[in-house]
Specification:
Blueprint (H helix, E strand, L loop, with lengths): L2 H23 L3 H26 L7 H24 L2 H24 L5 H20 L14 H24 L5 H20 L5 H33 L2 H8 L2 H12 L5 H21 L1
Length: 288
């Protein structure tokens, strides 16, 4: 992986962990993400128009734009449900870590890419770390034992991870046909229409979120836009597996933010789970 691609991905990782923490603190995570996508798409419009004049969108790009909108719609909905049901420091590592394990498996089935022993070990470590993370975040019962099962938050986090793996493969193919700024602008604006459907069932949610968190929304939209845009540019400079694995260094940031900023519990047990996931991510990156 080139130094330029790695730098882009590391900045994206820090930005991604930060906007997710802001979404967790929001009154309504889905409303927060709706505004983030609306403002992010608006920020990019001028740049997108300039790029469109130089290179109009070809017919081959539209299936990827539509696919990205649908997959990201499922992603944001599942992520908002996960944050509404559980801790940020449970949801984030599980969702992001699972996606790293799934991308090589999907590449094996769809692209015929063979897994090395180190890659297999990395996937196994990610899955073990997810299990440990889920256990560390479970509530403790009256008998002093942790309640069985990860609860709804863990289920929604797993679904989020599935959508991340799917849109990562879609994004990598898309940037060969469309400029990242144009791609992100269309996806962001399309998502505002798609996410409007579930928000219609919560009258006043958007107004309340804007009133209470407009400052955080503005910051979050820039972080959301920047994180995604940097990853799309990194896809143009490096292989999918390198980018997907390296950007999940954001998992380490999530443990710190969840425990120290959001006060979700003791840092040590969560760091143990995160260490296992990061070790798995490193194995996958080195195996490629």
């Amino acid at each position: 992986m080139s130094a330029a691609a790695l730098a882009l991905v590391l900045v994206a990782a820090a930005s991604h962990a930060a906007w997710n923490a802001l979404a967790k603190r929001a009154r309504d995570p889905l409303a927060f993400m709706w505004f983030g996508n609306l403002l992010g798409g608006a920020w990019l419009l001028v740049w997108a128009v300039v790029e469109l004049r130089a290179r109009p969108i070809g017919a081959a790009a539209w299936p990827f734009v539509l696919g990205s909108t649908a997959l990201h719609g499922a992603y944001f909905y599942a992520l908002s449900r996960a944050y509404a049901a559980g801790d940020y420091s449970l949801v984030y590592p599980v969702a992001r870590g699972l996606s790293v394990a799934l991308v090589p498996l999907l590449a094996l089935g769809l692209l015929g890419e063979r897994l090395s022993p180190l890659g297999v070990a990395g996937i196994a470590l990610v899955l073990v770390g997810i299990a440990v993370s889920g256990r560390a975040a479970r509530p403790v019962g009256a008998d002093g034992r942790r309640v069985a099962g990860g609860g709804p938050a863990l289920g929604w986090a797993v679904l989020t991870g599935l959508t991340i793996a799917a849109y990562s493969l879609n994004d990598r193919a898309a940037v060969a046909h469309i400029h990242p700024a144009v791609y992100l602008a269309f996806t962001g604006l399309g998502l505002t229409a798609l996410l409007w459907l579930p928000l219609r069932r919560r009258p006043g949610a958007l107004a309340r979120e804007w009133r209470d968190n407009r400052g955080a929304i503005a910051v979050g939209s820039v972080l959301m836009l920047g994180a995604y845009l940097l990853v799309l540019f990194a896809f143009q400079l490096s292989k999918t597996g390198y980018v997907v694995a390296a950007r999940e260094t954001s998992i380490a940031f999530s443990a710190l933010l969840g425990s120290l900023w959001l006060r979700e519990g003791r840092l040590a047990p969560r760091l143990g789970a995160v260490a296992i996931i990061v070790a798995g991510v490193a194995c996958i990156a080195l195996a490629r």
